[in-house]
Amino acid sequence: MSDEDFGRLFAPGGAAAIAPYQDSYAPAKGADAHKGNASQCLPTGMPGIMGVPLGYEFLFNPGRVTILAEEGPLIRRIYTDGRGHAADPDPSYAGDSVGQWQDNVLVVDTVAISPKTQFVGGKVKTSGSTHVIERFYLSDRNHLRVDTEVDDPIALTKAWRYSWTYKRSDVHFVESYYCDDDRDSAGEPNLTPPESN
Predict the structure, then answer these.
(1) Bridge-partner residues for 8, per DSSP?
(2) Residue 162 bridge partners (DSSP)
(3) Mean pLDDT lowest among 35-49, 55-69, 103-117
(4) In the chain, where are the structural domains located?
């Protein structure tokens, strides 16, 4: 499979169904319960980032696939050079991803996902014990399918399986969307220097 086969693809379609949360981990009620990362200017992270309805760009280099998402600043690096996971990886929003090609399917294994990240389709944070397996493949020239299995023994009662289909876009770049750190102000920030004494 070549870069031309995958190219640039656009936002996912489909639904992830409802996660099989443990009773003790089910989404809490109330205004502050399980606040969404977007409301705190944090990235969604894995696995939720793959279901955000924004654009994605897939870059192919020898030994690595890189996924750029419009929801910045998250960059996914999937190493396909035969390495295993880092011996003691630091948890991150993207996690530690290694992949291998099985014919025309890229199988990606992601661990070391920060407990600050979110599951797909909601404001529920992962537990820090999340393990994700994804299978990326073209279902036809213009559609990339990703079959996902999420395991999290603290948050979920069983493996959560769902699929997304991404449609190829004619747009030749992915724009960057960043949360505004000045979100609480009533307009533009005041950049006037303070008066000197």
Answers:
(1) 57
(2) 148
(3) 35-49
(4) 3-16+31-168
Query: CB-hemisphere CA count at 13 Å for 149?
Result: 9
pLDDT over 70, % of the chain: 72
Handedness of CA 149, 164, 55, 179 (dihedral sign): negative
Percent of the chain residues past pLDDT 90, beyond the cut: 43
Whether the Cβ atoms of residue 93 and residue 72 lie closer than 8 Å to each other:
no
Q: Assess if CATH 2.60.40 describes domain 3-16+31-168.
A: no
- 93-113 in b/e form (b: 16+ CB < 10 A) is bbbbbbbeeeeebbbbbbbbb
